[in-house]
Amino acid sequence: MIFHIYGTDIYLCREKLKELETGFITKKDKSGLNVVRIFADSLDYDRFTQESLTTPFLSEKKLIIISGIMSEMSPARKKLRDQIVNFIKTRKIENNLLFFDVFDDTKKIPQKDLLFNYLKQQKYSWECNSPKGRNLSIWINQYCQTKKIKIEDLAITELINLTGGDLTQITLELAKLKAYKNGKLIELADIKNLVKAKFDDDIFKLTDALAAKNKKLALKLISDQLLSGNQPLALLASISWQFKTLLKIKSELEKNPKITTNTLATKIEIHPYVVQKNIVNAKNFNLKQLININNQLIETEKQLKSGIKNPELLFDLLITKNC
Questions:
Q1: Which of the residues 45, 148, 260, 302 has an alpha carbon 20 to 30 A from that of 252?
Q2: CB-based contacts of 209: which residues, under 8 Å, 6+ apart?
Q3: Rounded to whole angstroms, how far apart are CA atoms 158 and 192?
Q4: pTM of this prediction?
């Protein structure tokens, strides 16, 4: 059986992945020994065919989760995807295959790719994109009902403004607010007092320091964040989100320097308030700089997760490269 999860919202994609993985372990593999996770960077055709055809250990099937196969458009990756789709079409595979891909925006979804189109046509294929506008408010209301959280409409609007519509942060903030209010109604004042903006001042100051090549200040800001207890991956996620947003804004400004904030927000599918907060910083970088920084952040995340170097050194290297 083939499963396919893709889209632009990492929270919704991960929740769907968690649901399928939990269901598989509960029904087919209580030991959890037959769930195989493979990232595209460590995948080749031989490993894919071997994992697909290997008999599971004390279970009916294996669940093979392949993450990020669509993230790279290089000739080598395209060749691998073409090999995989041909293999799937021509061989009977008893194990379960689950393809998992999260994209920065809908424009990066490879609609013409052979493997992607094949997976999209499968019975169990889910597109998980971030809800926007009124749909986001509806989603939060439904989520709150499910979690038995009471919240007023003005509080929802402010929560969206402060988080930029990021579902991961929204759900974390709601859990914190629910505990703080002990089941009572969450009001606008609670959001203003307790929710930390996605685009906090220190991240803006770091952006300014990098643009000004102020290495000393940039290193101090990073050090202060780590010493205050901010987890390295959480800090990196905030920085990455900031620079992805800047790249999207800069790309559109290059095409149309006179574009309005609201039009820009609609085009890149980001809340207008977030665009307004970021548009000045976007002008402090050129497009090439932002692309390079985003690529460095991806590499830093890989190294952080693999434990190759300590976090402080990785952040120092990131700052040094760009100052």
A1: 302
A2: 215, 217, 218, 221, 323
A3: 8
A4: 0.67
